[in-house]
Amino acid sequence: MEPLTEAQQELYDWLVEYIRANQHSPSIRQMMRAMGLKSPAPVQSRLEHLKTKGYISWDEGKARTIRLMHADSPGVPIRGAIAATGLVETFQDVEVEHLDFSNLLLNPRYFALRVRGLSMIDALIDDGDVVIMEPATDPKSIKNGTIVAAHVNGQTTLKYYSRKGSKVTLEPGNPDRDTYPIIELPASQVEIQGVLVGVWRFKRAS
To answer: What number does CATH give the domain 6-68?
Structure first.
């Protein structure tokens, strides 16, 4: 589908969460308040764009007729593996399978990665766990100490993130520095692909 502008994405994400929580679409006034707008015109314009781009169906002028067109996916897409050791080959933007979180209200933009290694064990993230990530739309807003999926020289790793000036530090959650060293690089060499929002642990055989 055609990509959304930031304003359109903001409204769409809010609509998904509202409709999933309430099982009906909101009023124009509710959307105005949520978007911080004082006029219905911008809301109606965004709705029309969402409709044109195929994200919703909507009878113009009737807010309560909004229906999400692609928000009923079977779960969160697992897009590959992420290293909790050193670095591994970056994940591809391909949905290889889904985790079924139909009983939870999750943002449709979230994706998941399988963890390989023990470098984040002190953060209670074990080898084989699945981490739920939110795409990083504004890396400059990420707080130091946040766990991120960082893309470095064609490879991806799960680490604590911190930035000071033009330098980024990626620190493991494991005190064994011989096995799990701290990575320090210029910020220009680090792409933050996602921010951790949750961990899913499958029941392991005893």
So the answer is: 1.10.10.10
